Amino acid sequence: MQAPPITLQCDCGEVGSVPYGERWTCAACGKTWDTSKIPAGDIDDLLRSVRRYRLLAIGPPLAFAAVLVPLAVMVGLQFALLLFVLVVSYGLFVLPRVRDRATQRVHETKRRWELTPE
Questions:
Q1: How far is CA 47 from the centre of its chain?
Q2: Which alpha helices (H) appear in 15-92, and where do they start and end?
Q3: What is the distance of C-alpha 44 from the center of its chain?
Q4: Bridge partners of 17?
Q5: 37 CB-near residues (< 8 Å, 6+ apart)
Q6: Given CA atoms 80, 81, 85, 86 in this order, what sign does their dihedral have?
Q7: What local confidence, expressed as pLDDT, does residue 115 receive?
Q8: Bridge partners for 6 per DSSP
Q9: What pLDDT does residue 56 have?
Q10: What is the C-alpha radius of gyration for the chain, rounded to an integer number of angstroms?
Q11: Comparison of pLDDT for 56 and 46, the residue scoring more
Q12: For the chain, which terminal residue's Cβ has fewer other Cβ atoms within 10 angstroms, N or C?
């Protein structure tokens, strides 16, 4: 998984966004900022939380489908209706809470790194 972009703000007020590990040069004043100075552990923690959210968002509906689609094909279409109800219920009732907790976790661990230009 690719690291999310890091937003940098130059002393002159210019804002840029680059992936982790790359350099950004301010177009206004020419200062260069190196994002590889950010601790790799912090980026790894962020990526781990994003991966966990993705797994929690798509995992249960896939598990429901893995069980209920074969049942719908072999036994009857009532299992397809059950799959629809379960996936919609998960999306409406469970997923917003999971999303809120994931967002809260990211905001709690959100760090502001003080980078200096080169």
A1: 7
A2: 40-74, 78-89
A3: 12
A4: 7
A5: 113, 115
A6: negative
A7: 81
A8: 18
A9: 94
A10: 21
A11: 56
A12: N
Reported for 102-106, long-range contacts at CB under 8 A and 24+ positions apart, including other chains, are: 102/49, 102/52, 102/53, 102/56, 105/49, 106/46, 106/49
Tell me the torsion sign for CA atoms 83, 87, 93, 97: positive
**How many residues appear in the chain?**
118
**Structure-token pair, residue 75:** 């036994």
- Mean pLDDT to the nearest integer, 28-52: 87
Mean pLDDT of 35-63: 90
Q: Work out the average pLDDT over 48-66.
A: 94
Angle (CA) 51-94-87 rounded to 5° is 90
For helices 95-109 and 40-74, angle between their N-to-C axes, nearest 10 degrees = 170
